[in-house]
Amino acid sequence: MEVQEMKKQPFSKVSLEEWKKTAEASLKGKPLEALHTATYEEISLKPLYRAEDVEDGDAAQYPGEPDYRRGFLKGGYMEKPWRNAHSLTADSPAQLQEKISTAMKAGQTALSFSGEVSARMTYGDFSELPLDEQPLYIDMKDHFLAFAAFLLKKREQKVSGAAGTDIVSLYAQKGLVPDKNILNLYIEAISQMTEVLPQLKTIRIDTAPYQAAGANAYQEISIALAEAVFYIELFKEEGWTPAEIVEKMHIHFAIGSQFFMELAKLRAFRKAWTALCEAYGLAGDSVKVTVGAETSAFTLSRLDRHVNILRTGSEAFSALLGGVEFLQVTSFDQVNGQPSPLGERIARNIPLILQNESHVDKVIDPAGGSYYIETLTSELSQKAWGYFTDIEEAGGILAVLKDGVLQKELAAVLEKRKTDLALRKKSMIGTNVYADINEPAPTSAPVPEVLLASKSVSSFDEVIQSVEGDVSAAELHVQDSGAEIIPVKAERLAEPYERLRARAEALRADGKDVEAGLICLGKLKDFKPRADFVTGMLAVGGISAKTSGECHTVEEAVQFVKDSSLPYYCICGADASYEQFGPQLAEAIKQSKENVTVDLAGRLPEEAQSAWTQSGLNGSIYAGQNILEKLANLLDLLEGESAHE
C-alpha cells in the first residue's frame, strides 16, 4: 500500500454500546460496574468518560472567565509565573540568612521559612531579611502577632506575597476555639498591616491541618469556604467590605497522592469559590483570590524515604496543573526532623524541572476539556458546596468544631484510609508493600524545641511596644485562650508501619534475631508465589524470612525446624501440597519443638480448616488480611520469646 493510500485509510468507529459489550465480555460475567473505582469522596470513577458526561458548557469555558475552574488568569503561568516557595529551615537566624541567599541564587522565587526558626528571630534578625527582593509566602503559625509587629516596625511597603496565620485551624490543632480577646488581637494586627503593607495578603486560610487529619478533597474545599465565611463576617463587623476582605486572603491547600483528584480539587475550589463570592455580591477581579499549596506531609514516610521524592514530584505536578500561584515542595527527609541540604535542594529543584524541562508553564490549563477531569471537577464542586452548606446550617466552622462533628467526620475518613492500607487495598511503596528490610534505620535531626511565652495583653499595640532589643518572636507570644474542643490532630499514614519497624529494630539492637521460618513444600514453582508473598509481608514489619529448601516429606520439614530453631514458622506451598501433606504436617512441627507457632500461607477451604487447627495450626497469612494486626501479633510473639531467653 502506498503512503498516500495509507493516509486516506479511515479508522473504524466504535460505538459506546460496542465498547460496553467488549468490556463486559472481558469481565467474564462480572458487571461493567466492576471496573468502577470508589473514592474517599464517595465518587465512583468510571473506566471511560465521554462528552455526554460533561455538564453543558463546562468544557467550553476559557481560562480567566467565570466560573474560573480553568484559572483566574487568561494567560495562566505565561501571564503570571508560579512562585517556587520551598519552606527553609535553619538552626539559627544567621544560618537562615545564608540559606535564603543560596536558595534565591538556585531558583527559589519566594521567601519562605519554617515556624521553628521564626520563633528564635528578633526584630534585628528580621530586619536583615531581603523582604523586598521576592514575594513572601510564610505561615506565621504561633508567631503571627510578633511577625506582624516586626513588619509594622520595619514599614517596608514593597513587601508583597502572602504571610499570615489561619487562627481557626491553628487553634483547632491545639484543641481550642479562639476567644474574643485573641480574635480582637488578630483583627487589630490585620487592620494595621493593611494600612502599612497594602500588597501583602495577610488573611490565611489553611486546610493542610484538616487534610492531615484525614479530610477528603471535597471536605477540604468545604472547610476553606466555611472559614472564608467566618473571616468575611468577622471583618464585616469592623466595617470592611467583602471585596476588601477577599483581596487580603490567601488559601493554602495540601496536595495528596491521588493525582487527578487533587488536580480536580483545585479546579473545583475555584468553581465553588466563585459561587461563594457571587453570594456576597462580588464579580470579576474581586473574586480572584491567591491560592498556594504544599506537597502533603500526610503521605510522607520515614521508611524508604527516597520514595518521598517521587511522591512530592507527583504532588507538585498535580498542584501546578491545578493552577496554584505558590508551591511549597516538602523535603523528602523532612519527616526525620531538620531536612538535609540534599533534601532542600531536591525540593527546590522539582518545580524547576517541571518548569524548565516539562514546560508546564507554557500550557494554559492543560487539564481543560478532559472529559474525566471536567466531570470530576463538577462532581467535587457539587459535593463540596453541599457539605459547606451543611456546615453553615450547623452554625458555621466554629460551631462544628465546638460540637466535634467535623473532627468525627474527618476521623471516619482517616480510619478508612488506614484500613485500606492495612488490608493493602491501597499501597504505600516501601511502607506497606515492597519494604526494604535491609534499609538502615533512618537517623533523625531533631528540630530544636522552642518554648513559647504566654504574655497577657489587651491590645496589639502592647505587642508592638514590646519589640525591642533581643526580644524574640517566641518571647512575644500571647497566651492562648479559648473554649476547649476535640483537637484536629495531624497524622501520617505511614506512622503505624514505622512503629512496627521500630519494634523490630529494638529487638535487633538487643542482639536478637527477628526472623520467621518459611517451610517450603514441593518444587520451587509450587511454593515460590506464596513464599514471596509472605516474605514481602514480613518485611513490612521488619521481620526477615529464613526459607527451607524444597521439602518433599514431613521429615524434611521437621528437620528444617530443628536446624533453624525459630519461634515462628509459616508453611508455604500450593493448594495441592497442602492436601498432600495434610494436617499431620502441623502436628509434626508442633511436636518437634516446644512453644512453636505455625501459620500457613493462603486460606484453607472451610472443610479443611478444622482439622488443621486441631493439629496445631495457629492461623494464616493471606491477601486481604489486616497486616498491621498480624505483624503486631508476630512481633508480640518475638518480643515474648526474647523476654524468656
Structure, described:
- This protein has 645 residues and is an alpha/beta fold.
- It folds into 2 domains: 84-424 and 456-484, Methylmalonyl-CoA mutase (TIM Barrel, Alpha-Beta Barrel), CATH 3.20.20.240; 497-644, 3-Layer(aba) Sandwich (Rossmann fold).
- Helices cover 47% and strands 10% of the residues.
- It is built from 26 helices and 17 strands.
- A 5-stranded parallel sheet has the order 3-11-10-9-8. Strands 14-13-15-16-17 form a 5-stranded parallel sheet, with helices on both faces.
- The longest helix has 23 residues, at 371-393.
- The chain is globular, with a radius of gyration of 29 Å.
- It starts with a helix and ends with a helix.
- The model has no long low-confidence stretch (mean pLDDT 94).
- It holds the Pfam family MM_CoA_mutase.
- Belongs to the methylmalonyl-CoA mutase family.
